């Protein structure tokens, strides 16, 4: 069992391996995290872990009524996550490697990171300026029939793309641009589908690639049928998540 200890960045979204994650960092706890990561030599990975929030607020209350009418100001690394922050997060997350950390003149940061490896959350330490987690790296097992399932998912995903783009528009991605490695397919599709956080979390923590692909195939068929009668939706970058305002 390989364990690592890394800074923890909770979000209201799920990060998958291979997904690009832009961050707009302005809270002091995460600014402190980025200042510490900048001490890492440029030729070494600047890693932190991302977990999806189960119960809590991505942005801590900064004044009465923010971010919701009942909130009161909180301070510290666990602000917004209760007395036991580990219980506020989903148990499986993803390591992120920050390729770019740029500090602005006002002390906030623009960060561009990429998901790399799934991890299991073992414990959370809130004694410092930001949360730090003890994590177990999770291997990606292939599972049975992963190759055939990946082919089926890609076919279903193209149909899903066409429905999202609208019957009068071309597919969002040409066939030559889609991967064929089952694990990569499974993560790309999980990230690209318009799903709620619990469903994306379920896909992230699937026991193996084949299981994730089976789940995605069912979801793709169901979602394609649902949107068949809906208006066209805007296309999205399939490997890039929306910028998080931490």
Automatic annotation (TrEMBL):
PROSITE patterns in the record: LON_N
A Pfam family per the record: LON_substr_bdg
Domain Lon N-terminal span(s) in chain numbering: 6-224
SMART domains: LON (SM00464)
Domain of life of the native organism: Bacteria
UniProt cross-references to InterPro entries, sorted A to Z: Lon_prtase_N (IPR003111), Lon_prtase_N_sf (IPR046336), PUA-like_sf (IPR015947)
Region (Disordered): 60-84
Protein name: LON peptidase substrate-binding domain-containing protein
Native source species: Streptomyces justiciae
């Amino acid at each position: 069992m390989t364990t690592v200890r890394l800074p923890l960045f909770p979000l209201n979204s799920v990060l998958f391996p291979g997904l690009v994650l832009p961050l707009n960092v302005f809270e002091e706890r995460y600014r402190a995290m980025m200042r510490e990561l900048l001490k890492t030599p440029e030729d070494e990975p600047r890693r932190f872990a991302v977990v999806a929030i189960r119960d809590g607020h991505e942005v801590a209350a900064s004044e009465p009524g923010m971010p919701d009418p009942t909130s009161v100001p909180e301070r510290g690394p666990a602000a917004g996550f209760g007395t036991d922050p580990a219980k506020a997060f989903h148990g499986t997350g993803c390591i992120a490697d920050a390729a770019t950390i740029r500090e602005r003149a006002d002390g906030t940061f623009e960060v561009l990171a990429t998901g790399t490896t799934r991890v299991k959350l073992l414990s959370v330490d809130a004694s410092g300026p930001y949360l730090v987690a003890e994590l177990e790296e999770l291997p990606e097992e292939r599972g049975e029939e992963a190759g055939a399932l990946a082919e089926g998912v890609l076919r279903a995903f193209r149909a899903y793309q066409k429905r999202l783009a609208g019957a009068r528009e071309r597919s969002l991605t040409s066939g030559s641009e889609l991967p064929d490695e089952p694990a990569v397919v499974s993560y790309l599709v999980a990230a690209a589908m318009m799903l709620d956080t619990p469903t994306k979390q379920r896909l992230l923590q699937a026991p193996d690639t084949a299981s994730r692909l089976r789940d995605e195939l069912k979801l793709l068929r169901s979602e394609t049928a649902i949107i068949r009668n809906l208006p066209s939706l805007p296309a999205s970058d399939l490997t890039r998540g929306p910028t998080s305002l931490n």
